[in-house]
Structure formats: C-alpha cells, structure tokens
Amino acid sequence: MINKDKSLILFSPNTPRHVRETMKATMSITHETSGERYLGLPVSVGRFGKNTFAYLKKRIWASVQGWQEKMLSKAGKEILIKAVAQAIPTYAMSCFDLTKGLCDELSSMIGRYWWSQQDKEHKMHWLSWETLTRSKKHGGPGFGDLHLFNMAMLSRQAWRLLNNQDTLCGQVLKAKYFPDGKLLQCWGPGWHLILVA
User: Fold this and answer.
1) What rounded mean pLDDT belongs to the chain?
2) What pLDDT, on the 0 to 100 scale, is given for residue 108?
3) What top-level branch of life does the organism fall under (predicted)?
4) According to the per-residue pLDDT averaged within each range, which of 2-11, 46-55, 62-71, 85-94 is highest?
C-alpha cells in the first residue's frame, strides 16, 4: 500500500497551476516537492550536472580533511582512499553520468591527499594519476579511475535493460525511450536521465 501522507509529487517548473491541482486531487497526494534528493540522489539533473553533484565533492573533501590530522602510513592512506573516498560516489555513478571533469576533480582531491603530509598539504606529486590508477601487478597502487568506473556502472545498467526488458522498469523505459527495441541507438547525452527515470 502507498502511504499518501508520506508521498510527494514532483512537477516540471512549467506545469500550469490548474494541472498541478488536478493531478494532486486525482492521486490524493497533497504535498509537492522541489525535487532535491531521493534516496540520497538528485531527482533531476539540469544542464549543469556538475553543480548538481557538488555534494559528492564536499563529502569526499570532508572525509579527507578529517584524515589529515592522523599520522598514517602510505598503506593506511591507500586503504582509506580505496575503502572510503573512492566508494562515496559509487551509488551516484550507478545511476548518473558524472561528467569527466567532475571525476577528474574528485581524482585530483584524492591525489592531493595521497601525496600530502601532515605538516605540508601541497607536496610534490612524484607519479601521474594515470600511474596511480594502474593495477598492482602493473606497478601501480591500484586506485580506481572514477570516470571509467562510472562508464562501467552505466554499461551494467544498459546490459540489464537489454537482458530484462520484461521487468516493470524495463517496460517503462522501453515504451518511453526505445519503443523499437533498439536500446543502443538511443544512447546519448541524456542517457543518465533514462537510467534513473
């Protein structure tokens, strides 16, 4: 059963007032939402998606700042980066295309923390980020490339849609975005919106 008291309804900004009132009365939902977050993710992403995901940068920065005071070995820093800093955006990456620029900014913050020392935040970076993202068997510490990980997570969602089009989510997305059944032809800049719809 749907709890109507806890339910909210979201409208496009250009939806006329009389249409909003009719929809609310029909669905017996009285409260509107501005659509900021649902399950920790933004409900809608406008043209400036980078600003929408600024909260990820704040969360990673807050984590890193909390660690600056601790005397950690390189192994301790590596574990914190892999287990916490690079895990924070994982849920958002499974639903949205975080731009390459944003992923690079997150990686840059992580890189600064990796090379910093307790007394000096800006220390020389002896290796490029590309080297740091190499696996251990290829001579790197094995940090994840956030942009590639983001693409892999979205590709996984596309694979699920290709193989499970009979699910409720699959049927809705197919009817709206690829009624001819050609999912890969509808892939484009707005694809992150399709995956969350």
Assistant:
1) 78
2) 84
3) Eukaryota
4) 85-94
Question: 10 is in which domain, residue-wise?
Answer: 1-34
In a domain, 43, yes or no: no
Question: 42 and 52 in contact (C-beta within 8 Å)?
Answer: yes
Q: Is residue 114 over pLDDT 60?
A: yes
Amino acid at site 88? I
59 and 22 belong to one structural domain: no
Q: What residue type is assigned to position 23 of the chain?
A: M
Is a pLDDT exceeding 80 seen at residue 153?
yes
d(CA 80, CA 32): 40
pLDDT digits (tens, 9 = 90+) for 8-22: 888 877 889 999 999
Closest among 177, 175, 182, 180 to 192, alpha carbons compared = 177
Q: How many structural domains does the chain have?
A: 2
Helices (H), the chain: 17-27, 49-52, 54-68, 74-80, 90-93, 100-115, 129-132, 146-163, 168-177, 191-196
- Contacts of 93 by beta carbon, 8 Å cutoff, 6+ apart: 146, 149, 150, 153, 154
Q: Which strand (E) or helix (H) includes residue 38?
A: strand 37-38
